[in-house]
Amino acid sequence: MSTPKTNPLSVDFLYELYSTAIANDNVCSVVVQHMKSEYLPDRSFQRVQEVMCNHYNNYKSPPTYPILSQVFSTDYDVIELLNTFRESDGDSNSDVVLDILESYIKGVKLQNVYAEVGKLYNQSKQSKAEQTLKEYAEWLTTFTLKSSAFVDVAKTFKERYQQNREREVEESQSSLPQVTRFYIPYLDALNSGRNLRGQLTCFLASTGVGKSHIVKHVGLRAVVDDALNVLHFQLEGSEEEALNAYSGGMIAKNSYYFERGKISDTEMKHFEGVVDQYIGTVTVRCFPRFNARVSTLDIKSGIAEYRKMSGRNPDIVVIDSMDLLTDASKRVWGAEHERSKRITVANDLKDLAADEKVWMVVTYQATIENRDWLNNEKNVLTEYNCSEAKGLSRPCTHLISLNQSSSERIENMMRLHIAKSRFFKKGDTIHIATDFDNEIFYDVERTLRLNRNI
């Protein structure tokens, strides 16, 4: 095969690249992973790249021309660009196209580096200019689009450290507020300020223990304590129940009083003033009670709708309950494939958390219904109590179970068990006090007294 004559820095190559990416899964995956918006020449290319990334991340396949045409039906510049893609040869050899893409990325970065170096020299910053050139040279020796199963730890040691460092700097300079707390002090101490964006946290419990209470606790404290924006998807129970529970939680009063209008005018005026002070927001989106086909794609669409409505991204997305979801394909899974469906749903949500840069907080129904087993306070729920999905915990960053015996229920106490954590130690069990009568999941003062007495 002769060496390709295509100029990697020409726009003609980009026509060929995207034409091939639409026709070829492998090329599309590489373009999604490595092509950055700033590498592209104009807004039209950038919009196509964004839609291609979103589609591929959701469906693991390239978008078709009809899909792209529908998305950009009112953008005539992009439609014209898509027509140019159609006219290109989308059956080009994928290896050749990826070789040229590698040269394209190297060339674009080189142009950017020389522009930056020239600017630094003009500003008499010679040492920084030399460092910039050195960093590019080091990156150039390791960058390739050719797949390799082997990574030399020592040779990539410095490069990987620099990448980690740059990522931390980007996160610290991001305009997005920090999301770092579970609003359970023991868990917050273990997490030690680690950013929870992009992570999936699952709270596991048997019926009636308090799954809905804990996710509403996270949502409320995020709004009140950290001025974050929370989007809550309610898949079980009515919209009224969810709204009343949040409203009661905001004023630490049983939702019954709010629901029945049994708060005095004087108290209500005071509470209105309290609620008006909150900077953060919690927005509830409920699905029909009998709609059994809510999918992770509906969750993604709900986030997009929220963004369009409010003009901002949510910081935390709450789903109550994950076991009522189906995956993005909305396929009808047979009973024998229930386990696969549940794991696919969890994987979808983990990917969605990363794509949308949100903390995804979900609940899940435990299968143990043996009251005697639950009443033994030495027992705790783990990943082995995740219904049909023994592998469900794999996509989860955290799996935390809520455990409560009959006597603990009477005393308004429970045990939280860290069944899985990717970034801090697992296996700990902590005792907490609750106050569900006043819509409070974590009773701070009683928990402190409780742990002093244990």
Folded structure, characterized:
- The structure is a single chain.
- The chain has helices at 11-23, 25-34, 43-59, 65-71, 76-87, 94-122, 126-142, 157-173, 185-191, 211-226, 239-250, 255-259, 265-276, 296-310, 338-356, 371-375, 406-410, 444-453; strands spanning 200-205, 229-234, 281-286, 316-320, 359-365, 398-403, 413-421, 429-433.
- The protein has 454 residues and is of the alpha/beta class.
- It folds into two domains: 11-171, DNAb Helicase, Chain A, CATH 1.10.860; 185-453, Rossmann fold.
- It has an eight-stranded mixed beta sheet, sandwiched between helices.
- β4, α15 (338-356) and β5 (359-365) form a beta-alpha-beta unit.
- α1 packs across α2 and α10 (211-226) packs across α11.
- The longest helix has 29 residues, at 94-122.
- It is globular.
- The N and C termini lie far apart (75 Å).
- Residues 1-7 have low confidence and may be disordered.
